[in-house]
Specification:
There is one protein chain. This protein is an alpha/beta fold. It has four domains: 142 residues, Alpha Horseshoe (Serine Threonine Protein Phosphatase 5, Tetratricopeptide repeat), CATH 1.25.40; 81 residues, no CATH class; 161 residues, Rossmann fold (3-Layer(aba) Sandwich); 140 residues, Response regulator (Rossmann fold), CATH 3.40.50. The chain contains 22 helices and 17 strands. The strands form four sheets. Strands 9-8-10-11-12-16-17 form a seven-stranded mixed β-sheet, sandwiched between helices. A five-stranded parallel β-sheet has the order 4-3-5-6-7, with helices on both faces. A three-stranded antiparallel β-sheet has the order 13-14-15. α5 packs antiparallel against α6 and α6 packs antiparallel against α7. The radius of gyration is 26 Å and the shape is globular. The chain starts with a strand and ends in a 7-residue tail after the last strand.
């Protein structure tokens, strides 16, 4: 197997990635700030944060507030949003500038947590003569707008930064990378309308540059012509145009070949069993397909930063992992990570770094796939019966939003106690609303689904029922599963194929997940450049969207009197 450099090459969202390291508040002792900045420059923002927090505990007044804010910023650089929020809560000052910076940092946290609308509301007004604060605010606002899908607004803010006086050349280049990332998310047939909605003199040059880099065999000629025509364009004067080829999204990629790939997982502790199955999946695929490189695991329980450093020292040319959301957030802003990563989780919002692809077995993906399957099989009115828990909230929200976006309507919803044993009253009360539906979406586990199925039949409700992989917990039991006959559900192809039949379905899904992470490291260059392209994996048919998040299209099965049969037709999204 050949593993390739997959991604855009360490692009970040300036403020979100902590690129502005010299805010315009200078009351702290210079030696303290200098030591902290040195730690950050050496790739150790967590140490800097702890150092600043310790210094703040000995300070008072404005100096203390300044150090607290700097510590919070460093914690964010390390991906520690919870700690950053805790530190910012201790800031008590009447200084207008410090309060403005505190507001920007709170908005930055909201962006990192996917609370984009709240981030916009948190952003404070800043002085018109403070370039640093204007920059920090604009970059954070742009990130929030991008997260909301408002690409024109995000782009407008980024382009306006070029006109600021005394803009740091490094920050300008980072800003141009962000402009490029935003533009790359816009479909070709929508670029003209985008240009008309963005009021900036440089937008035409940017779009023509993007078209030049998408011109296939004529790329070199088209880019040369662009350089001649736009020699004073910011993308030319900053040197950005000469760096695009190293970014991967619209450029040729070089093969890692026999290089090393590190798998970053919590291989000790509570998540050890999960991690072991993921690693087995990747290692098994490497053995089956003849990967000649060094594939090795690194324990993240000693700290994800330590794990990344170890992986780099051992020669890793790509990373698979880490697993937890906090660690995924951390590697996106980690200076010492110099190689691309397939993160084994999905944060729920676009990657803030163009060299990190998010790949998770998240329930939202199954809900979206179920909605797509239902619509494409003629269903238009859904009733939802779902567990009353966080997972139920996530999966039903994803189903409902996708179903409605595709033209369907949700006619009603019932929640049940996932540990309950009697659902008769709930189903009886809902029966009137269910009568207006042409299908039921029921993401329940096997035992609850048996009880719910029996109650639905008792109420003479015979609608098609669509579920998710959580119902496929083991072998079909003709004695117990009779109430499930006819129910359809989505699951990983590896489950229907019996690829890992020697382990439980939960373990098999994790092995398929690990194998596909290694597949994605190889296929990502093509998938990033062509968001509609997909590859067939063990966990689903996989594609990478414009936010560098992996979308899975699952296979479908159906309970029959003889057992579980794979459905020949299914979602073709």
């Amino acid at each position: 197997m050949t593993i390739k450099h997959a991604f855009l090459g360490a692009i970040s969202l300036a403020v979100v990635a902590g690129c502005v390291t010299s805010p315009s508040y200078n009351t702290a002792p210079s030696s303290t700030v200098q030591q902290a900045n040195s730690m950050i420059a050496e790739g150790n923002p967590l140490a800097a944060a702890n150092f600043l927090l310790n210094a703040a505990s000995r300070a008072t007044g404005k100096e203390q507030a300044n150090l607290y804010i700097r510590a919070a910023s460093a914690y964010l650089d390390a991906g520690e949003t919870t700690q950053a929020k805790s530190v910012l809560a201790q800031v008590d000052t009447t200084d207008a500038t410090l309060n403005a910076i505190r507001g920007i940092e709170l908005a930055r946290i909201a962006v990192l947590e996917g609370r984009y609308q709240e981030a916009l509301a948190l952003l404070p007004s800043v002085p018109s003569n403070d370039t640093n604060l204007i920059t920090r605010r604009a970059v954070t606002e742009s990130a929030a707008q991008e997260g909301l899908g408002n690409l024109a607004q995000a782009l407008q803010l980024r382009l306006q930064l070029d006109g600021l006086p005394n803009l740091n050349p490094t920050l300008q280049l980072q800003n141009h990378r962000a402009v490029w990332r935003i533009l790359s998310q816009v479909p070709y047939n929508q670029r003209e309308s985008l240009a008309s909605s963005v009021s900036h003199v440089d937008i035409t040059g940017w779009l023509l540059l993007l078209n030049a880099y998408n011109s296939g065999a004529q790329r070199d000629q088209m880019v040369s012509q662009w350089k001649a025509r736009f020699s004073v364009h910011p993308a030319a004067t900053s040197g950005f145009v000469d760096q695009i080829a190293t970014m991967g999204v619209n450029a040729d990629v070089s093969a890692i070949g026999s290089g090393a790939v590190a798998i970053l997982l919590p291989i000790t502790g509570r998540a050890a069993n999960f991690s072991n199955e993921i690693a087995k999946g990747a290692m098994g695929l490497a053995e089956r397909e003849g990967f000649s490189g060094n594939l090795f695991t690194v324990d993240t329980n000693n700290g994800v930063q330590t794990a990344v450093i170890e992986a780099t020292q051992r020669g890793a040319q790509a990373i698979i992992g880490p697993l937890t959301k906090d660690n995924v957030s951390a590697i996106m802003v980690m200076a010492e990570r110099t190689v691309p990563a397939i993160a084994l989780n999905d944060l729920g919002y676009p990657s803030q770094d163009g060299s990190v692809i998010q790949f998770g077995l998240n329930p939202e993906n199954e809900g979206e796939d179920a909605a797509d399957f239902a619509i494409k099989n003629g269903r238009s009115r859904a009733y939802i019966i779902a567990p009353a828990n966080i997972s139920g909230d996530r999966i039903t929200s994803a189903f409902a939003s996708t179903f409605e976006a595709m033209g369907g309507s949700v006619v009603g919803e019932t929640r049940f106690d996932p540990n309950g044993v009697d659902f008769s009253q709930s189903i009886r009360q809902a029966s009137g609303s269910i009568a207006g539906a042409d299908m039921i979406f029921m993401p329940a586990r096997r035992q609850a689904a048996r009880l719910l199925g029996a109650q639905l039949k008792f109420e003479k409700i015979n609608l098609p029922i669509i579920a998710t992989s959580r119902i496929n917990e083991g072998r079909f039991d003709a004695r117990l599963d009779g109430e499930l006959i006819g129910l359809m559900f989505n699951d990983a192809p590896a489950i229907f194929e019996g690829r890992y039949s020697d382990v439980s379905n939960d373990a098999a899904r994790l092995r398929a997940f690990g194998a596909d992470a290694l597949r994605l490291a190889n296929a990502a260059p093509s998938l990033v450049a062509n968001p509609q392209q997909s590859i067939q994996g063990e966990s689903g048919s996989l594609r990478i969207d414009g936010g560098l998040r992996v979308r899975r299209i699952l296979d479908w099965g159906k309970f029959t009197p003889e057992g579980i049969d794979k459905i020949a037709f299914g979602s073709q999204r």
